[in-house]
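Allow me, if you will, to draw on your knowledge of protein folds for a short while. The matter concerns a single protein, recorded as an amino acid sequence and a row of backbone structure tokens. Could you please explain, in whatever detail you think fit, how the structure tokens follow from the sequence? I remain grateful for any guidance, and I place the record below:

…
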Amino acid sequence: MVMAMLLPLTLGGCGDDHPAASGYSAKSTDQAAESACTIFSARYQRAGTKAKRLSLADEVGRYAGRSDNGAVAGRAVLVGRSASRGDDSWRAASKSFLQACHSAGWKSR
């Protein structure tokens, strides 16, 4: 299920019809990015199994894919790809995703 969801995000994030392609600001969050960042931050450290990581990546990807913030949306795709690749990949993608969230002005709770 995750792979089916990630492919459209990847393709949608690259095309000229994606909102991010028409002047998003990496320094702002919309409701979709806010939700993706909040959900991920609350659960990523407890996602210790491949199944939990894939589930979290799927949920976060659904929100981030609707965001006008291309940095958050793009990093969510990387989180999805890393979910089954092991601890080091997961940690790196998680850090990158949260950095994109913070750069966009999101504040952890």
User: Anything to note?
Assistant: Residues 48-109 form one domain.
